[in-house]
Amino acid sequence: MKPWLWLSPQFAHDIAPLALRLGAAFKTDEIPIWKPLKWNGLSFPNRLGLAGGVDKDGESIEEWWAYGVGFVEVGTITPRAQGPNPGVIMSRDLPSKALWNKMGFPGRGVDIARENFKDLPPRRRTPVFANIGKNRDTSNDDAVKDYAACMQTLDGLADAFVVNISSPNTTGLRELLQPRRFQKFLGGVLAAKNKIESSNTPVLLKMSPDAEDSDLQSVIKIACDLGIDGFIATNTTLAREHGSPFPPEGGVSGSPLAARSKEVLQLVRDAAGPRKLVVSVGGVMTPLDVRERLDLGADLVQIYSALIFEGPGFFKHVAREMQSQR
Length: 326
Fold this sequence. Notes:
The chain is of the alpha/beta class. Helix content is 34%, strand content 17%. The two termini are 29 Å apart.
């Protein structure tokens, strides 16, 4: 029984933090341990985490811990508060288990996220990543300044930064992934990171599923040469299956993204080599999907749409399956 699916997608999204808080109040279990990972000084009790885009300001991190996540990605966080794109910004299709959104980095800004990070207990139960982006009214020429501002404000609080230039919902953002512009942009971001006090904080790049394979390989090579620490594959897609009920703009996630997400995962793993952290997200809808992504070379796995269709109990469902097959 999944009563939240009776609600409109937008209303269900808006009340989710309250529902999560109420549910977490009755959960006292420790975070389940399966396939624990140590990477770059961080300890992950298990390999399944929350993708960016769910908890945009970091207001529910402790509640997500109560549901058994192995790590949490907060954001996308922008320097200044901004609302969503105009019009309808979210929809879902139950038969295809697909989710559509054109939110466009809505959030309360990096200062609020900083306060939420500071409110966490000194000993965190899992790593917490900060997914950072630019405000929509910031030009691509000035984009580095927005990413630098987020890193400076969250210095010493985020366990890793996720550079998001792959969302399809901020006009022109993906132009920064074009190889001719990418080197200057990412070089500037990494130079800014190296100037903050916690300059050893790892930086991950979130990849687009819609780029050509040759462009993805170029971006990966440039990123590795510049010293990126890892990759997240992938963001939502502008591609549409035949008969899709969604408009052409906006990003689709869920089951329709699975095949391309797996292709990009394998491409990233092969091109980046074994030393870079690779996180797989996109179309992960069952415990078998989680296991498959790990078998394909992912170090970590994230979910977004599975929470919409299966609920937050999915984390412990996966844990039971993983622990039973040891």
